[in-house]
Amino acid sequence: MKIIHEYALSHVKGNRRSSIFIFVAILIASSLISAMGVFSYTEWLHEVDIATSSRGSWHGRFEEPIKRESLKYIQENPQVKEVYIQSQAQTLQLTGTKRAYINITQVSTNSWGNTTSRKALLEGKLPEKSGEMVVSKLFFTENPQYKIGDTITLPKGERVLDGSIMAKDSPFLYGEAFRALGEQTVTITGSLNVPSVSSYPCYYAFGFLDLESPLPEGQYNVSASLNNIREAYNVFPLLAANTGLKLDHEGRYDITYNTNLLALYGAKDPNGYGSSLDLSGYLLSALLSMGLVMLVFIILIYNAFTVTSTSQIKQLGILKSIGATPRQIRSCVRYEAFFLSCIAVPLGISLGYASMVILIRIVNLLLKDTMDTQMRVVFAWPILLLSLFMSICTVFLSAWGPARKLGKLLPIEAVKYSPEAASLKKSKDHRWIHHWLGFEGELAFNALQANKKAYRTTLIALTLFITLFLGFQCFAAIWMMDQKQVLADKDYTLTISSALVDEPDPLMLKELSLIPGIHSQVMYRESHHTLLWDNKNISPEFQAAGGFKEDYFSGNNLEREGEQPRIFVELIGLDTDSFANFARKLDVDPTQFNHPAEHKGIIVNHTSGNVQSIIDKRKIPSSEYLDIAVGDTLALKERAEPDKQKLKGYTLTVGAVTHQYPELDQYYYPFDLIIVVPMETYENIVLKLNPERGLEYQKLTYKMNIPREQLANAQQQANTILGKYLPPEDRTTRSLLDQEAYNAKLIRSIELLIIGFAVFLGVVGITGAFSAVAGNLFARRREFAVLRSAGLSPQGMSRIVNLESMFFGCTPLLLSLPLLIVGCSIMLRNAASTTWRTFIVNAPWGYILLMLPLVVGVVWLAYRVTGSKIKRESIIEAIRDERI
Q1: Nearest CA-CA partner of 370 in 767, 806, 792, 741
Q2: Whose CA is closest to 470, among 859, 857, 32, 844?
Q3: DSSP character at residue 225
Q4: Residue 654 C-alpha from the chain's centroid
Q5: What is the mean predicted confidence (pLDDT) over 268-273?
Q6: Torsion angle of the four alpha carbons 718, 719, 720, 726, in this order, in degrees rounded to the nearest 10
Q7: Cα 7 from Cα 656, distance rounded (Å)
């Protein structure tokens, strides 16, 4: 066996060209396997980071406060990993400040980073003992007389309106008062980056809740994480029952689950809510991508081992004739694979990891202004071990086939083997090539056909390189055209949003309406309500389509209350001119809606909405929805939220019924009932509802259609005008140019990852081209010497080499063409608006035209370098050379 080891090692050293190529292929295979694994894990981790940064790392939250004496049933439960406790918010009254109150919540230390964002801390430190608090930076901005470290004593109590306690997040309401219940002394330890609109009269603050000491009597908001996250949907209802919480009208406990986070760990909501991207999706993506790399490189390395094993058939035949067993012969190839992979696999895994670190840092840099949470690469042993296992499998599966074939060869067959004889059998008569390119062209084409196995590795690598590189460029072109068309189809190019409770300043609205270039504009408010409906009182069309099916209540804006569906209602209040235009389009007289106290509106009575992906997935019928007619009265109600249970209702008369949605560049979801009313009617309705929801109801959206060439200046003017009337926290502007810039950054970040993968394949192809061409031409030295001795001129030999390089270089381009056509067809089929005609006009022709000279040039250079050496060699020495 020692002789076999030494022979395998000497063959690796003696055949440097093929060994280097196999080494590079193994290196890149393990690099890509590692990179794919790291990327998939990083993507999954990024989604986890987004879920935890936006909502926290808790798994479930009890929306009903829990009494102090019941906390033990959660804290002492063996299935609970950690409990996060917060007190009910306490209001502290300020004097001599811009806002009247501090809204302080005492939180347990473990809540920071789990239910409350630790990243929000700007200055100072988090509370570490009772009596300390961190307060929003707005407190210091609006009240510079206060500094971190100040200790203040403030009245504590409740905001009340008409004798009732107000919600803690209620905007300032006229007539409200403060009911003092004592005093509290607090020391400011830091500032938090917590935004707050100007209509909210409180500064947010957080204090310290000491869990080591007995908690004060009262109720607490509780969240928890579990030891087994996948049991969340089973365990939390049991915890709620143990603490004495009550069931709602649907027989469920009022529990909010961190659905996106749970889905990422493989726990799916039985009601169908949560993220569509779950653990199984990322795991499948990782295994498929790593498996694809394995498959590609098994083919590549298999062919490389086939070529190098063919070159040693005579030597192995001699070893077999003197007593080497088939197992020992197979071991020769396996030991070669082992020697080459000992360095290549660890180095490749390290290279893949390092390349992903660099690429992801570049992506973070490109998208730093648009990503709240940066991607991060975390070293994970499971990914490392999986990459190591798959890399080793790739190498040894590649070597298994050639080793098995060598083991079956008889000694006499191996000793008599002649590669030249094998080539001659494959030569065919190609008269059409002889007619156009002469006998040199025919010789070149026959040589390529006869040695196609030796070139297969390089052809596959170059074909995949071209397909991936050009395929992504085509995908980017189609996607960008699609996005531009989607944006071009929008009715408005500039959107202004403001968070106001009071009416906006008329002068501000007038100045905004006079911005140059406005072709059309609309101003509206919207709020969400519900309608309890009779299950039988639906339109005949909807009834014929099956009516309310059970799966419609999973993931759509439909709920059940007993046997009746509760329908999601979107109430939209349009400005006077926009409402009149909408009514006239429907051939409806807008003057009949001019009495705000009547609460009359236009009902969009349609089932499907306009979100095509949901329509297709749920197979939503397109039909009239409810059985209603002009003059009917609808009884609507505020939408229930966990912390806002004081629900009020109103009635609305159906003034008109239509299937046409208002043109507001909005998504309307299936089974939503859209009600459009004049702005005055809208305000008359919401002012009589719960005043504590004023911020939710009174948000104003102003959209304008401005030509693209004037859009940048218009947005700048809008920001200047808004700055005169509103503080920064109350306003935002977003234009079509902002969206296009984001799309461009997004496509560039994806391009880095895809092109990086393509470049790896390109390196394999180019390395393989030089290795395969050099090995093949040197193996044909006798053939060229015989031709030269028969009168082939140096120019004729150059012509053979040049034509062979042209055939070789064009082959991967031709092979990749049908793959690109199929790929583009699939992309165009799923595109929203791009067609073959528009794609052909806007295709990445620059890259396509660059690829032909690049690939052919690389192959030509490989032939040129090797061919020049053969041409300089003596004919007699080449003919007498007995080396195989």
Answers
A1: 741
A2: 844
A3: E
A4: 42
A5: 64
A6: 110
A7: 91
* Burial category of 663 from C-beta neighbours within 10 Å (exposed 0-12, middle 13-18, buried 19 and up): middle
Q: What is the CA radius of gyration of the chain?
A: 36
Helix (H, G, I), strand (E, B) or coil at 130: coil
Nearest residue to 798 via CA among 879, 878, 855, 866: 866
Place of tokens 């919540």: 105
Rounded to an integer, what distance in angstroms lies between the CA atom of residue 307 and that of residue 21?
11
Q: Which residues lie below 8 Å from residue 385, measured CB to CB, with a gap of 6+?
A: none
Sign of the CA dihedral with 850 first, then 852, 855, and 858 last: negative
Q: Environment class of residue 390 by beta-carbon count within 10 Å: exposed (0-12), middle (13-18) or buried (19+)?
A: buried
Whole-structure pTM value: 0.66
Report residue 288 CA to chain centroid gap: 17
Beta strands in 381-519 (DSSP E): 494-498
15 touches 379 (CB < 8 A): no
The average pLDDT across 361-380 equals: 71
For residue 882, the model assigns a pLDDT of 46
Long-range pairs for 115-122 at CB < 8 Å and ≥24 separation? Answer: 115/56, 115/57, 115/58, 115/61, 115/84, 115/86, 115/223, 116/56, 116/86, 116/206, 117/53, 117/56, 119/53, 120/192, 120/193, 120/194, 121/190, 121/191, 121/192, 121/193, 122/190, 122/191, 122/192, 122/193
Whole-number pLDDT of residue 531: 92
Query: Which among 671, 644, 648 has a CA at the least distance from the CA of 254?
Result: 644
Beta bridge pairs of residue 152: 186
- Of the candidates 359, 376, 268, which has an alpha carbon nearest to the alpha carbon of residue 41? 376
Instruction: pLDDT band for 417, please (50, 70, 90 cuts).
Output: low
Cα 679 to Cα 575: distance, rounded to the nearest angstrom? 5
